[in-house]
Amino acid sequence: MTKGILLASGSSFRRDMLRKAGVDITVEASTLDERALEAPLQQSGTSPEDVALILAEAKAMDVSGRHPGLLVIGADQTLSLGDRVFHKPADMEAARRNLLALSGQTHRLNSAVVLVRDGTVVWRHVGVAELTMRALDPRFIGRYLAAVKERALGSVGAYQIEAEGIQLMERVEGDIFTIIGLPLLPLLAELRALGEIDG
């Protein structure tokens, strides 16, 4: 069997997390249209956690088909506020609307990771973190977006908690890796159990 780990994600955050943890990976982002896959799931009432899992699996399957023998990591994250699922804002106005909706509320980040080899799911996991945003003055939101600029468009909540986004928060429950988009500790444990990394 060919050995190797491939990350089926274009996320620089996920790539850097794995590499900083000492995991030797190659990267090939899936070319699937995530929004097209997600639309029928949301219409059918699929939970945000299951949406993240299904999308993570679809990405891993897509890339796995092109790389026999390799272990492929698929990952996806949803942000949910009650039944509403948020997406990366298309522009600064959408980022402002997202922050206004999240202001003073507790939302969930559902970070899914799936391992696939030769088109077979080997393992799946969803990590959940709950974040409570401060009640934000609309003028502060404007100043925040002016400071972070286009970075607000790179994450579903229009914030990076590892940067200025931490100032938006009142309370955080969950690990930083899940929040950034990859439940790293459970993934590393599974990679060790599979003999893919030194344990």
Short characterization:
The chain is an alpha/beta fold and 199 residues long.
Topology:
Elements: E1 5-7, H1 12-20, E2 26-27, H2 34-43, H3 48-64, E3 71-81, E4 84-86, H4 92-102, E5 106-117, E6 120-133, H5 138-148, E7 169-173, H6 176-180, H7 184-193
Parallel strand pairs: 1-2, 1-3
Antiparallel strand pairs: 3-4, 3-5, 5-6, 6-7
Helix pairs in contact: 4-5
Oligomer: single chain
Total helical segments: 7
* Radius of gyration, whole Å: 17 Å
Number of strands: 7
Tally of separate domains: 1
Structural class: alpha/beta
Level-1 CATH class name: Alpha Beta
The 3D shape can be described as globular
Distance between the termini: 20 Å
Q: Segments where pLDDT lies below 50 for 5+ residues?
A: none
Characterize the largest beta sheet: strand count, sense, and whether it forms a barrel. 7 strands, mixed
Mean pLDDT: 93
The fold-level CATH name is Maf protein
**CATH architecture verdict:** Alpha-Beta Complex
